[in-house]
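Figure 6 in text form: structure in, sequence out.
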């Protein structure tokens, strides 16, 4: 058993995959100095600038070059620095990478990982704080991954690098320093949820950093004799419908909690699926928690008003169970 930070788990995995496969390489801005969050620190010294490649400040150029490199036989890992910045390369990702396998009749694949640090990070404001994972789940051809723990960031990144499809890999900026046990270095398959905490009265579905708020809420609810089961989806496409449905059939109640804007968020997909396939098991209406549809403020007090916290999860969960 090894203890790692969320950032080091990904860095260790990338290094291992680069040693294993000479076709794996990384490109993006500031990689030579270790990346904005230190997630590439020391890699250029081992692999050199040809495989840890510093790029010009042009997300479209970075991602466009990576798409071509992937289609011609390499496995690029693309660093976008912030999920917000990836919007400058949305054509290359959505119209090119996601559709190439289909439009070429399977004659080519686009095996690449697009790392997009996501989420609220204190006072990063409206252009550096967004959680845009639901955008990508809407696009056929993309895999969408949102790890919440160091172990998952290790195993899911390994799977992503080995995938034949473009993977939008969204790591939450606020948990880079999170430490956790990493029991193994095995790939974790896409589409398999993790039961972060077992329970019998209520199912809380979440992903990314909000999983930790959900587990904290579940511990608080246990003091009130409310048993909450926390399901960490880990990947949003594909997502583990069976695990969610099985949990709701057991508990009869569903709360979906995520940091991203609640309007059109992926929580709506989870809620609709449960309403369609497990409605006979429901003892209460399905509830969703997320950010309101407003820009994220620089000011900490205003930023805090947008957060989904353990307290807001506890309050909503309590109302679901007690009526």
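Output sequence:
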């Amino acid at each position: 058993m090894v203890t790692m930070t969320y950032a080091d788990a990904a860095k260790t995995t990338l290094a291992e995959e680069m040693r294993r496969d000479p076709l794996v390489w990384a490109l993006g801005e500031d990689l030579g100095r270790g990346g904005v969050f230190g997630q590439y620190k020391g890699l250029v010294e081992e692999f050199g600038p040809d495989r840890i490649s510093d790029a010009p400040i042009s997300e479209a150029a970075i991602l466009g070059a990576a798409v071509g490199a992937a289609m011609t036989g390499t496995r690029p890992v693309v660093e976008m620095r912030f999920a917000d910045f990836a919007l400058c390369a949305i054509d290359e990702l959505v119209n090119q990478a996601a559709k190439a396998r289909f439009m070429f009749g399977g004659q080519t694949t686009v095996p690449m990982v697009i790392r997009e640090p996501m989420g609220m990070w204190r006072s990063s404001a409206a252009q550096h704080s967004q959680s845009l994972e639901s955008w990508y789940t809407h696009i056929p051809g993309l895999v969408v991954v949102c790890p919440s723990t160091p172990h998952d960031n290790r195993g899911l990144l390994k799977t992503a690098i080995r995938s034949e499809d473009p993977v939008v890999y969204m790591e939450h900026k606020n948990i880079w320093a999170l430490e956790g046990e990493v029991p193994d270095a095995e790939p974790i398959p896409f589409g398999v949820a993790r039961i972060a905490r077992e329970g019998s009265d209520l199912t809380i579905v979440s992903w990314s950093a909000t999983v930790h708020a959900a587990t904290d809420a579940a511990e608080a609810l246990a003091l009130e004799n409310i048993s909450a089961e926390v399901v960490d989806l880990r990947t949003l496409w594909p997502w583990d419908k069976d695990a969610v449905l099985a949990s709701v059939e057991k508990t009869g109640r569903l709360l979906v909690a995520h940091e991203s804007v609640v309007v059109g968020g992926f929580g709506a997909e989870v809620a609709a699926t449960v309403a369609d396939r497990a409605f006979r098991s429901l003892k209460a209406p399905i509830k969703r928690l997320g950010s309101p549809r407003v820009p994220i403020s620089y000011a900490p007090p205003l930023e805090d008003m947008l957060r989904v916290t353990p307290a807001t999860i506890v309050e909503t969960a309590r109302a679901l169970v007690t009526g």
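Caption detail: Residues 126 and 296 are 5 Å apart (CA to CA).
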